[in-house]
Every structure is written in structure tokens, then in C-alpha cells.
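Check the record.
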Amino acid sequence: MKIIPIHDLSDKALDPYARLTEAQLLNRDDPENAMFIAESPLVIERALEAGCTCLSILAEDKHIGNFVQEIAEKFSLDVPVYTAEFSVLTQLTGFKLTRGMLALMKRPRLLSMEEVTEGANRIAVLEDVVNPTNLGAIFRSAAALGVDGVLISEASSDPLYRRAIRVSMGNVFKVPWAFFSGETADAIYFLGQKGFHTAALALKENSVPIDEPRLCGMEKLALVLGTEGEGLEDETIAACDDTVIIPMTRGVDSLNVAAASAVAFFATQKR
């Protein structure tokens, strides 16, 4: 490892950690040089296990001899490690580092919808889920509850935003995902061509309970979840084979999309 104590907070090598926005890291105009930030040793390890390339590390100096050293040895890393005391790093980044460690990573190649759905039995489709916290939580539930892949509208948050990655506990690197362009109805048509039964989570009169036994028995099932607040577009609901609802009590009509995803993924696990 190349340990580099931080003496100058304006050092351009620190820009990705301190001054570049998520959009600048994404670098849509030059995807070959797109990057993301992974936060915490657990998340960094999961990114490396998934084959992501580490470009540099920013770490609290007291962690150099444990977390950083262990990860560097495990993955044979030979990258710059910028280090300083906790107070300096907080001043630099503007937030408190989770377990004192960040890593700058090269963004992996985006998968196609074909790749994500190949061999899959359970797929989640996310329409305009814009909150990275919700997106990260959905990925964590997807990994835990047997979802094989996630298809995401381009208007949704990016799974590789730092907060989405952190909330997912690095599970965005475990569950295959792809963006889809155009209308969600087009993605639903694609899934239908691949043999998936599609079910929209929506508050409609003709909705069936999410624990409907026949849904669990489906060989291939895609659950479609909508944006925070407004839910799914009418055209999206109309394109699906079923409309499903989570039965509730005490007059509550709906759950947050992240909570709803966990319930839906669990209820429709392939039996």
C-alpha cells in the first residue's frame, strides 16, 4: 500500500471524495471513466468480491493497521491510501465516515436486461424510485428474499450512489440489475416475452392479495413497484397480468415502497 498522509485538503487527488458530485462521478459522457464511492469495509469488500476495480482509499489513520491492511492483502491491492484523523476526514468529506473508510471504485460494465433475466425466476421492476435510501433498502430485501434481478427505470436513483450502496449493505453488488429506457410498459412486454407473469403493486379495486397462492406457484414472476407517493403509472398497471395489494389493518392504505418490497418479495417467494 502507498500510505499518503493528508496535509492539503485542496489536493486534487481528493476531489472524488470531497468535491465531485454523484453526477460527476457517474460521468455519462465518458462511461469508461465513470466512478463511484463505496463506504465502510463491508461494502468495499463486497464491491471487490463482485470484481469492481479499486482506484484509491480514504481512511481514518487508526484503521490502516486493521481494516485497510486486511482488505489490501485479501484483494492484493496496490493503490494510494489517503489517511488522516477522523476530524480531518469529516471536514474534508462533509460527513462522518462509516467505520472510517471510503474507496473510490471504477464503475463496472452495465448489464443488459437480457443478462439480468437469463435463468431468473423472480424479478423486481422499479418505476421511478428516486430516493436512494429506498432503492438501497429494496436491494437489501431483494438479496435476502430470493429476488434474482432488478430492472430499473432511467428516472430512478442510481444503485451506485454512495447512500444507496451503503443502505443496501453492499447488496447492489450481489443482485444483478439493469436500467431500462422508455416506458415501463415496454419492459413489462419484454418480461412477458421471456415467460414472466407480471404483477403490479397498486391500490386498485381489482387487486388480489399479495399472498395469493397462485403467485407463489408461478415459475417466473416479476413484481412491479412504483415511485414514492404517486405509485405506478396507469399504463404500467394496465400492461401487467395482475394487480396485487398488501392487505392492511387500522385504515392504513399503503406502505413505503421499500417496506412494501420486502413484504412482496417474501410473500411471493417461489415455493
Summary: The radius of gyration is 20 Å. The CA atoms of residues 110 and 178 lie 7 Å apart.
